Amino acid sequence: MKKLLVNSAIVLLITFLFIGCVQTKEKGWIQLFDGKDLNNWEVKIKGFPLNENYKNTFRVEDGLLKVRYDQYDKFDGHFGHLFYKHPFSHYKIRVEYRFVGQQITGGPGWAVRNSGIMIHGQSAESMELDQDFPVSVEVQLLGGNGKDERSTLNVCTPGTNVVMNGKLILDHCINSISKTYHGEQWVTAEVEVQGDSIVRHTIDGKTVMEYTQPQLDERDQYYTKLLPPDKNKLLNKGTISLQSESHPIDFRKVELLNMGEECETGKVKN
């Protein structure tokens, strides 16, 4: 009887700890972009050293995080990424974005109204000078042209692969089931990342993409460089970055809910 009571008490304690953890986490959204500056971010633009913000590509104006090309003569392949200073493993990230204006001259056709949130990425410091994109999983942000259908929150995989429905996906991009967002309207996108298990893309409260086991791609030129000593190619944490791919875009909110690993292990951090 005593053993039964002890076991019941342990179960209740674990239950309360789990509930408390979830409640705490749901109240724990933090603003990665404070509306004032980019002090907590690092810039890496192709062809330039770390933190050289070529032609003021990434800037804060009117409380918005803006990606702009008004000081460029032409795009010339200068793909850029703005990295948050800390990596994360288990979290939700939510952004509010809109595409504005026209694509800069020289931008590739596929990059019209195109940007992305890169998750589980390599560090900015580890990128090579002329590397186009960080090895990562891209949550693709796309805008419509006013007439044709074009989903957003697709998944693309620079240097990586993911698993869908138990099958390793080797295609570079897979479309979501989202509707098309035309014009310069604000769009709210949310991504849930649970380490190397489940990743979910949600928009308008609807899950439009889901996959598991994000991992390094053995075919990629940076695979050996980024493979950890234990040879485990699954990605359970990494950097978060926002793209500059030749079309102006605004972000008015970039916020994160750090779910942490403690909720899964039963350990609650103070």
Give a quick summary of the entry:
The protein is mainly β and 270 residues long. The chain has helices at 2-26, 223-226, 262-265, and strands spanning 29-31, 41-45, 58-61, 64-67, 80-84, 90-99, 114-121, 137-142, 154-156, 160-164, 167-169, 173-174, 187-194, 198-203, 206-216, 239-244, 249-258. It has one domain (30-265): Exo-inulinase, domain 1 (Jelly Rolls, Sandwich), CATH 2.60.120.560.
List keywords for this structure.
single chain; disordered C terminus; 7-stranded antiparallel β-sheet; Jelly Rolls; globular; disordered N terminus; 17 strands
CATH hierarchy class name: Mainly Beta
Helix content: 10-25%
Give a short account of the largest sheet.
10 strands, antiparallel
End-to-end gap: 34 Å
CATH superfamily: Exo-inulinase, domain 1
Succession of helices and strands: HEEEEEEEEEEEEEEEHEEH
Number of strands: 17
Total DSSP helices: 3
The average pLDDT value, as a whole number, equals: 90
- Output the structural class: mainly beta
Would you identify the regions where 5 or more consecutive residues have pLDDT less than 50? 1-25, 262-270
Q: Roughly how many Å is the radius of gyration? A: 20 Å
Total domain count: 1
Structure, explained:
With 270 residues, the protein is mainly β. The protein has one domain (30-265): Sandwich (Jelly Rolls). The protein has three helices and 17 strands. The strands form two sheets. Strands 1, 3, 4, 6, 10, 11, 13, 14, 15 and 17 form a ten-stranded antiparallel β-sheet that branches. A seven-stranded antiparallel β-sheet has the order 2-5-16-7-8-9-12, with no helix packed on it. The longest helix has 25 residues, at 2-26. Mean pLDDT is 90; it is low at 1-25 and 262-270.
